[in-house]
Amino acid sequence: MKVPERTHVQLPAGAGAHFQVYLNGVLQQPGRDFRQEGRELVFEGRLAKEGRLGFWRWLSLFLGVAGTYRQNDSVDVVYEVNGQRVVATGLPLRPTD
């Protein structure tokens, strides 16, 4: 039996009850695109970061020999603290094991 893959993202410490979530720059809707479980956001499916480029991959990109096609997801949360808008970008992704 295969368990569906999910990705968990910890909410920033200062985020209250009202916040906006963006995945790769696109506004996400609670209940449709993600759900909140305590202080975590849960996305159905696997989100991933590309990681650091090695020398040869960087050189091939620099020379225009190859492009990069790896998955590189970014979750950002916009919230307010003391009336100031705060944006937490590139939050760590934790896939379900």
Walk me through what this model shows.
The chain has one helix spanning 55-62; strands spanning 6-10, 19-23, 26-28, 35-37, 40-44, 75-81, 84-88, 94-95. The mean pLDDT is 86. Helices cover 8% and strands 36% of the residues. It starts with 5 loop residues before the first strand and ends with a strand. By secondary structure, the chain is mainly beta. It is globular and about 45 Å long. The chain is built from one helix and eight strands. Strand 4 and strand 5 form a beta hairpin. The strands form two sheets. It has a four-stranded antiparallel sheet with strand order 4-5-1-8, with no helix packed on it. A four-stranded antiparallel sheet has the order 3-2-6-7, with no helix packed on it.
Features:
globular, 36% strand, 97 residues, 4-stranded antiparallel β-sheet, mainly beta
Topology (elements, then pairings):
Layout: E1 6-10, E2 19-23, E3 26-28, E4 35-37, E5 40-44, H1 55-62, E6 75-81, E7 84-88, E8 94-95
Quick overview:
By secondary structure, the chain is mainly beta. It is built from 1 helix and 8 strands.
Q: Quote the average pLDDT.
A: 86
Q: What is the rounded Rg?
A: 16 Å
How far apart the termini lie comes to 14 Å
Give helix % range. under 10%
Q: What string, H for helix and E for strand, traces the elements in order? A: EEEEEHEEE
Indicate the proportion of strand residues: 35-45%
Q: Which term fits the overall shape?
A: globular
> What's the arrangement of strands in the largest beta sheet?
4-5-1-8
The secondary-structure class comes to: mainly beta
